[in-house]
Amino acid sequence: MNYTIGIDVGGTKIAGGIVDSEGKIVSRVRRSAPAQDSDLMLAAIAEVINELSAQQETTGVGIALAGFMDKERNRMRLSPNVAWRDIEIRSAIESKVGKPVIIENDANAAAWGEFRFGGGAEADSMVMLTIGTGLGSGVIIDGQLLIGAHGIGAECGHFKVKPDGQLCGCGQRGCLEQYASGQAITRNARVFVASGTPAAQPLLDACGQDPTTLTGAMVTETAQKGDPASISILAEAGKWLGFGMSTIAAILDPEMFVVGGGGGDAGELILAPARVEFELKLPAREHRPIAKITAATLGNDAGIIGAADLARKL
Ligand SMILES: [Zn+2]
User: Fold this and answer.
1) 30 and 88 share one domain
2) What is the mean pLDDT of residues 84-102?
3) 107 with 59, same domain?
4) I need a labelling partner for 4 at 20 to 30 A (CA). Which of 212, 228, 255, 275 fits?
5) Strands 68-69 and 75-78
6) Are residues 43 and 150 in the same domain?
């Protein structure tokens, strides 16, 4: 058995694991992330790697990170959650751990994990959409991770679905992320609660009568208990997701869409309306195979498993 290390770096935690060649995590290390200090953060990642390296012979390290990185996967241009601005991350960490390292965008690494060992394992071409606060995505076409000419492609959350629509964190308006993401679900739920309708009582109860604390996870929970308003808020996000998928399919023609994050947790409450809208809006829909829409299966481990598998190519 061959082992590699996978690291998933978030804004609050660094999660690492030793992963075997079948995608199984055999050991884990986790620590908090000193995200506000660039050097401390690099040192913390190296510590996690060195701790794992001491446990088992491993051949390489894959690190999943949020942010825009160069095509060579060395320099981080901008990381939204960590104080990294235009620094060479891969070479800095390699020099601290004495092993070959690859870095990859976290959504791409998670998509690769699902493609190799999770919900997309039976596909050659797959798009993963991860419903978190935003809408992350990773694209694999004919077995290759698509990163684009500058290394920052496959951002399906930021193609426009509504000209002059909601303002997005990327600075543009009307991105898919603004309609099919945790923040969209939360925004719609808060607007609904603020309307004062008696139908919002289950959501008000879920957030302890304080709508500012309402989260997407609470909406999912009340929907799972059968609250019609919460079901409808999730269905709205699912419908937008399916609409977005129909355009993604027009360009990329994947065999499968894998939906992860909170979208995966909500399951059919989001996936069923997404399928309906997808099939309705698919170009030439009666004359083509319909891509499968399914939930991710690796949960929060997808980034670790995907990054570790990418490190197998080192
Ligand atoms: Zn955007």
Assistant:
1) yes
2) 95
3) yes
4) 255
5) antiparallel
6) no
Residue-range definition of the domain harbouring residue 213: 121-296
Identify whether residues 108 and 71 lie together within a single domain.
yes
- φ/ψ of residue 205, rounded to 5: -65, -40
How would residue 313 be classed by pLDDT, with cut points 50, 70 and 90? confident
What residue type is 290 in one-letter code? I
Cα 260 to ligand 1 centroid, rounded to whole Å: 19
> Considering its fold, how many domains does the chain have in total?
2
Question: 155 C-alpha vs ligand 1 centroid, how far in Å?
Answer: 9
Dihedral of CA atoms 312, 41, 13, 307 in degrees, nearest 10, equals -10
Asked if residue 60 and residue 46 are part of one domain, the reply reads yes
pLDDT in tens, 114-137: 999 999 999 999 999 999 889 999
Span from the CA of 156 to the centroid of ligand 1 (angstroms): 9
* Ligand 1 centroid, distance to 34 Cα (angstroms): 27
Please tell me whether residues 141 and 219 are part of one structural domain.
yes
Q: Is residue 52 scored above 80 in pLDDT? A: yes
Q: Are residues 93 and 145 in the same domain?
A: no
- Tell me: do 263 and 308 sit in the same domain: no
What distance in Å separates the CA atoms of residue 198 and residue 175, rounded to the nearest whole number?
Answer: 32
Instruction: Tell me how far the alpha carbon of residue 55 lies from the centroid of ligand 1, in angstroms.
Output: 42
**CATH of residue 159:** 3.30.420.40
Give 139 Cα–ligand 1 centroid separation in angstroms: 17
Give me ligand 1 centre to Cα 166, in Å.
Answer: 9
How close is the Cα of 44 to the center of ligand 1, in Å?
A: 31
Q: What is the pLDDT of residues 242-301, one digit of tens each?
A: 999 999 999 999 999 999 988 778 999 999 999 999 999 999 999 999 999 999 999 999
Query: Which value, to the nearest 10 degrees, does the dihedral of the CA atoms of residues 217, 218, 221, 226 take?
Result: -130
Which amino acid does the sequence have at 253? D
